[in-house]
Specification:
Distance between the termini: 77 Å
Order of helices and strands: EHEEEHHHE
Strand content: 15-25%
CATH class of one domain: Alpha Beta
Strand order of the largest sheet: 1-5-4-3-2
Largest sheet: 5 strands, mixed
Bound molecules: protoporphyrin IX containing FE
Shape: globular
CATH architecture of one domain: Roll
CATH superfamily of one domain: Cytochrome b5-like heme/steroid binding domain
Radius of gyration: 22 Å
Number of helices: 4
Length: about 120
């Protein structure tokens, strides 16, 4: 018998080769030594680009462990800038993003206090 590990996945499937990152992962790649950036639900290893960024490294480092899409788009980056992204792509983002505060529902005020009527 050939000692070759065969994947039970669909033949020719390559979807599993895409790496995924959560916000927790991004926190670990939030230093100058290793810096990942989240843009448009994709994760980029911009470590080497930090020094080359025409806008400076600081603005990029500020986007640590959060969605940098808005900051990136606000600047109105050129197509040239966008083309730089492809080679830095390392995977897709999954899970919760740190963004604006979510709206709290005001439905049904829970009467916690009132529950203990006639306590003492
Ligand atoms: C990997 C992500 C990024 C890439 C590849 C990138 C690339 C570039 C490039 C090529 C330019 C020159 C102008 C242009 O071609 O548009 C530029 C300028 C600039 N970028 Fe980025 N950028 C990135 C992320 C960011 C982020 C997150 C910010 C945050 C605010 C930012 C802020 C700026 C600013 C302020 C300039 C203007 C610099 C100037 O003209 O003095 N960039 N960027």
């Amino acid at each position: 018998m050939p000692d070759v590990p065969v994947s039970p996945a669909a033949p020719g499937a390559s979807a599993s080769s895409t790496k995924t990152f959560t916000i927790e992962d991004l926190k670990q790649y939030g230093t100058r030594e290793k810096f990942y950036m989240l843009l448009h639900d994709k994760v980029y290893d911009v470590t080497k680009f930090l020094d080359d960024h025409p806008g400076g490294d600081e603005v990029m480092l500020e986007e640590v462990a959060r969605d940098a899409t808005e900051a990136f788009e606000d600047v109105g980056h050129s197509d040239e800038a966008r083309e730089l992204l492809a080679p830095m792509y390392v995977g897709d983002f999954v899970g919760e993003k740190k963004q604006k505060k979510s709206v709290t529902t005001k439905s049904g005020a829970v009467a916690d206090k009132a529950a203990s009527a006639g306590g003492r």
